Amino acid sequence: MVFQSVEQLIARKKELEAIRNKVKRRIVVCAGTGCVAAGSLEVYDELTKQLKEANFEISTDLMSCAHRNGSTHFVSPSGCHGYCQMGPLLQVEPDDILYMQVKPKDVGGIIATLQGKQPPDTKLLYKDPHTGAIQKGRNEINFYAKQERIALKNCGFIDPESLEDYLANGGYNGLIKALSLSGKEIVDIVTKSGLRGRGGAGFSTGKKWQSALQAKAEPKYVLCNGDEGDPGAFMDRSIMEGDPFKVLEGMTIGAWALQSQRGYIYVRKEYPLAVKRLQKAINELEKAGLLGDNILGTGFSFKVTISRGGGAFVCGESTALMRSIEGKVGEPRAKYTRSVIKGLYDCPTVLNNVETWACVPLILENGWEWFASKGTKTSTGTKAFSLVGKVKNTGLVEVPMGTTLRQIIFDIGGGIIGDRPFKAVQTGGPSGGCLPEQLLDLPVDFDTLTANGSMMGSGGMIVMDCRNCMVDIAKYFVHFLLEESCGKCTPCREGLRQLHYLVTLVTEGKGDENTIKQIERVCHAMKEGSLCSLGKDAPNPVLSTLKYFREEWLQHIQEKKCVAGVCRALITYWINPEKCTGCLICGRACPQGAIIGEKQKPHRIDPAKCDKCGVCYTVCPERFSAVEIH
Amino acid sequence: MSKINEISTPPPAHDFSKLEQILNRYPREEASLIMILQDIQDEYRYLPCDVLIETAKALNLPKSTVFSVGTFYKAFSLQPMGRHNIKVCMGTACHVRGAVMVLEAFQRELGLEHTGTTEDLEFTLETVNCVGACGMAPVVVIDEKYHGEVQPDRVKKMIKKGGK
Amino acid sequence: MKITLNGKQIEVNPGEYLLSVIRREGIEIPALCHHDAVEPVGACRLCIVEITRPEWEGWSRLVTSCLYPVEEGLIVETHSKLVSDTRATLLDMQLARCPDAEIIQKWAKEYGIEKTSFPVREDADKCILCDICVRICNAVGRYAIARTSRGIEKVVAVPLELGEDQACIGCLSCAHACPTGAIEWKEDSNTRTIWGLTFTLEKCPVTGEVLGTPQQLDHFAKKAGLSRDYFTKSDKAHKHETAKKFVKII
Asked: Is C51 on the interface with A (CB under 8 A)?
C-alpha cells in the first residue's frame, strides 16, 4: 500500500504491532555474513522443513501471521546478532533462548524443546568459561548482558527484508516525529543530543547539519558513508545488512531537516549483501510512499541512490567519496572550504556514516535528553565496536561511551584466547594506534583515545596477545596504506614508500639507531604535510607502537630478536624432541619437505630447507605443542 | 618516456553484446561510470580495451578518464581473470590470526609467486583488505562464498572444491 | 585586507591565494605543482607555510599556500622551523624519487640536501606527479593523458591508444609546462614524437618554419574560432603580408 498521510502510516503501524503481538513465538536464524558462512541458511531451511513436518503453524513473513489466531510461529532470517564466534545462531522469543553453533542435525532437538518434550540441549547453549554455568539467553550471557544496543537494536531481531517487520518494531517513529518539526528544530535536537560522527573524526553531527542548513546554495545532498574501509571493522556492514530501513529513515529525517531531495549511499564493493538489502529496502520504501515523490502527502520528495564503490580505502575520506560518487577517481581534494558548503557537485552536502544515520531516528523518537544521558559528557550515546583478534568472544558489541577497554575486552570479550597475556589493542583502523596494557582502564570515547595517540575511528577493536609483534603490526598498516594511498600528494605517497622500506629493514634485523630517527622524520613530514586525513594519520600505527612498545622495536634493532616470534628473519623453528611424539602431521604438512623423522620418533627441521612459513607450528596438535619458535 | 609502456593496454574482447545491456542499466552520465565498469568486470572478467573505448563514447567521456578510473580502483583488472576467484582477506583481524600463512598456502598450491591468475585461467588469487567478516578470521572468499577460520592445511581441499 | 607575512604587514586583495602574495613579495618558496594557467591542486605540498592568528593562542598549522585564500589578520611564516624541516624532508623524498630532476636538486640544495638520505627509486624517471601536464592537456581541451593507477604505482600515461583515434595532437603543451623536463619529445625536420606517438609536421610555405602538427593546427583553429587558413603560415609570414598590405595602402 502507498501511505498518503502520516495518519495512515500510524494506523498501519498499529495494525502491524497488533499482528506482531499475536505471534506465539518468534524464531530468528542469523543470516549475517559470519553465520551464513558457518551454514546458517541450511539450518534455516531444515528448521522450516521440520516445523512443517511437525505440524507447527508457521509463517515466514509477518503479514501472513495476520490471519492466524495467536498460535503462529514466525520464523525468519535476520541480520547479524553480533556473536559471530558462536554462529550459526538461532534465537527463540519470548523464551529468550539463544542456540549457538547450530547444525542442521540439531534442529530436531530444538523442535522437541518447542513442543515441550525436552529442555534445551545444553550443548547448544552458552557455557560461561569461568564458572561453567549454562546461560540460555541474551539476558544472562555476559557478551550480551553487558552491552547496550541502540544502533544495533534491531540487528538480529527483525527481518531486514521486511518493511512490515520494521514498522511493527518502532520503525518510522522518528520520521513521524520529525515531520512535525521544522528543520531548525530537528538540527537543534541532534545538536543537543551530542551525537558525534561515528565514522572517525567525531565531528558534531548537529553542527554539521547546522552549517548545511544555513548554506544558501541549492540543491543540497545527503550522503551516507558505507565505505567502512578500516580493516577489522564491520559495524556498518552489519547495520546495513541487518537494519537497512533504519539507515534510510535516518537519511530521510536529515533530508527533511535540510530540505534535500537527493541522497546517496556509498557502499564498498566488498559488501554485496549490504547493497542487495539496501536496494530492496529502497524499493519497498518507494512502493510504500516513504521515499520518492510527495512522502506521506507532505509535498516533500527524497530519492536515494546506492553508489557502489570500486574498492579504494581512500574513498572513506569525505572528499574522495564525493568524487567517487561523481564517477571520478577517488582522490581527496585539499579543502579549505568544508564539504557542508561545497561538497558533492560543489553543492552543500551532509555526509554521515551508517551508524550515525542509524542513531538519528532513535534520537528523534526518544528525545535528545535520552541520548545525551548515555555515555560521557563530551561523547554521548553508545558506540558499536567490532571486537576481534585474539579475544575469546569475537563479534559486534555496543556499549555506552566511556566504557573502559578492559570492560569491553575482558567482561564482554571474555579475555584473551588461551588466557595468554594481553599485549595491545588496536583501535581506529590504519589511522589509529595500538594501546598497551597500562591503558586498559582508559574510558573509550573520542577525546581520550585521540589524546593517547590512537583514535575511535569507525570502531574496529583488534586485540593482540604476546604472539603478535608490534613492529610487524606497524609494518602491516604501512603496507596496507601503501596499497591504498591514492598517490596524489608527495608526503603520503613518497612517505609511505620510504616508511615501508625502513620498517621492513627493522623486521629483517637490518635496522640501526638511525633507522628509527629516519622513520620518525618521515612520520613527522607526513603528519604535517599530507593533503588529507588519511595521509596525516597514516603514521599513527608506527608512532603509537614506537611510543608504547619502543623496547620491542629496539630488540629488533639491537638484539636482532623478535620475541613474539613473528618476524621471520629473526626466528627459527625448532622441534622439541622431548615433546615430539613423531605423529607425522607436521612432516606431511611442511610444504618444503624440511621436516625429517620417522613415525613415533622425534622429528627434526632441516634449517637449510626451512623457509619459516610456520605451517608446522600451526598444525602441531595443541596437546603436544612440540614446535617452538626461537 | 619509458613509463608509457608500463601501463599495458588490455586485450580487446571484440564482443559488445553484453555491453549494451550493461549500459542500459544506468543513466548515461559520468556518475554511472564506476558501476558500469564493475558490471563490465563481472561480465568479461576484466576491462577489455575496446569495451572501455565504447563505454567512453557512450558516456561522452574522454578515454583518459575511463582509463584513470579503470586503473585506480581495486575492483578492476586490465587482464583477464580466472574462472574462480579466491580472495584472501588481509584485514587486521585476519592478519593477527595468521592470514599471511593462509595466503602463502594458496600461492604454493596455485604456483603463484604473488597474487594473480594461474596460466590456465582457472584461478585468480587476490588479497582484499577486510571483507568485514572479522569475527571468523582468517577469512577466504571463494567465488562469493565465505570460508571462516581457514588454516593453511585446509587450503588444498578448498582449491579442489573450488575447481570442481 | 591586511595580513602579516614573515613579520611584515602587507596589503592583499580578497580572493587571492597566499602563494601569489608570497611571490609578489619576492619570497622564494618551491611550488612545483603550481602553474598559472591551471587550477591549483595542492599535490606537491612544497609550498606549505605556517599560519596562525592572535586568537589561536599560540596554535598554528601548516597549509598549502597555493590553495589557501588570504584572510584578514592572518599571520603567515614561509620559513619557520616547522615549515623548513617538513619541506626539507619532502624534498629529500622527492630527490629519492627523481634524483635527476634538476629543479628538485636545486631546491634540495637550498635546504641543505646534496644527496638524498633515502634509497633511490628503481628505474627513476623525472616525473614528480605534479599533474601539471594532465591539467594543461585538459585545459587545451584534449584530455589525452591521465594519471593512472594509484599510490606509488601512479604514473601519467596515454590511455588505451590503438594506433588511430588519438586524443593527443602533439602540441607539446604538456612537455613545455613540465617543471622537471620529464616528458621527453623529439623533432626532426619532418616529424615530432611525443608519448610514443609520431606526428608529421606542417611547415610555413613562406618561411619554412615549423607550424606544428596538422592535428594541433586543426584543434587550435577550431578552438579559437579562426579559419584554418590562418594557421597555414607562420607569424612571421603573416606579419610580412600585413606589412606588404600596409605599404600598398600608403
From this structure: no
Query: Which of A234, A51, A125, A337 is CA-nearest to residue B131?
Result: A234
How crowded is the C-beta side of B29, counted as CA atoms within 13 Å? 4
Tell me the average pLDDT of chain B.
Answer: 89
Predicted structure pTM score: 0.93
Residue A441 burial (CB count, 10 A):
10
Q: What is the pLDDT of residues A24-35, one digit of tens each?
A: 999 999 998 888
Let me know: does A553 contact A546? Beta carbons within 8 Å: yes
Is B34 part of the contact surface with chain A (CB cutoff 8 Å)?
A: yes
Instruction: Determine the Cα–Cα distance for residues A264 and A270; give it in Å rounded to an integer.
Output: 18
Cβ(A475)–Cβ(A500) below 8 Å: yes
DSSP 8-state symbol, A412: I
Q: Are residues A315 and A239 in the same domain?
A: yes
Q: Assess whether A328 and A356 both reside in one domain.
A: yes
Q: Domain range for residue A266?
A: 170-372
Number of H helices, E strands in chain A: 25, 20
Do A184 and A255 sit in the same domain of this protein?
Answer: yes
Domain count across chain A: 5
**In this structure, are A579 and A546 located in the same domain?**
no
The verdict on A459 and A476 lying in the same domain is no
Residue C133 forms contact with B (CB below 8 Å): no
Q: Name all domains of chain B by residue range, CATH numbers in brackets.
A: 9-72 (1.10.10), 84-162 (3.40.30.10)
The torsion angles phi and psi of A506, rounded to 5 degrees, stand at -65, -45
Both A127 and A230 in one domain: the answer is no
Report the CATH number at residue A581. Answer: 3.30.70.20
CATH of residue A402:
3.10.20.600
Report, as an integer, the average pLDDT of A130-142. 88
Do A116 and A68 sit in the same domain of this protein? yes
Is residue A245, in this structure, part of any structural domain at all? yes
Instruction: Report ipTM for this prediction.
Output: 0.94
Residues of A in contact with B157 (CB under 8 A): none
Q: Of the given ranges (A346-350, A356-360, A449-453, C3-7), which has the lowest mean pLDDT?
A: A449-453
- Measured distance CA(A235)–CA(A244) in Å, rounded: 13
**A198 Cβ contact partners less than 8 Å away, ≥ 6 residues apart:** A151, A352, A353, A354, A355, A356, A359, A383, A384, A458, A459
Interface probe for B, chosen from C122, C128, C160 (most Cβ of B below 10 Å), is C160
B35 touches chain A (CB under 8 A): yes
Phi, psi (5° rounding) for residue A252? -65, -40
Which of C64, C93, C131 has the CB atom closest to A495's CB atom? C93
Q: For residue B70, what pLDDT band results from cuts at 50, 70 and 90?
A: very high
CA distance C225 to B151: 68
Q: Does a structural domain hold residue A316?
A: yes
Q: Is the pLDDT of residue A279 over 70?
A: yes
Query: Counting Cβ atoms within 10 Å, is residue A630 exposed (0-12), middle (13-18) or buried (19+)?
Result: exposed
In a domain, residue A145? The reply is no
On whether the C2-110 domain is CATH 3.10.20.740, my answer is: yes
Please compute the mean of the pLDDT values over residues A167-196 and round it to a whole number: 97
Reported as a single tens digit per residue, the pLDDT across A471-526 is 999 999 999 999 999 999 999 999 999 999 999 999 999 999 999 999 999 999 99
C145 chain-B contacts, CB cut-off 8 A: 64
36-75 in chain B: CB under 8 A from chain A? 37-38, 65, 68-69, 72-75
Domain ranges of chain C: 2-110, 132-249
Residue B162 pLDDT: 65
Instruction: For residues B109 and A527, give the distance between their C-alpha atoms in angstroms, rounded to a whole number.
Output: 41
Please indicate, yes or no, whether residues A333 and A186 belong to a single structural domain of this protein: yes
Give the count of alpha carbons within 13 A of A20, CB side only: 20
In a domain? residue A605: yes
Given a cut of 80, is residue C159 above it in pLDDT? no
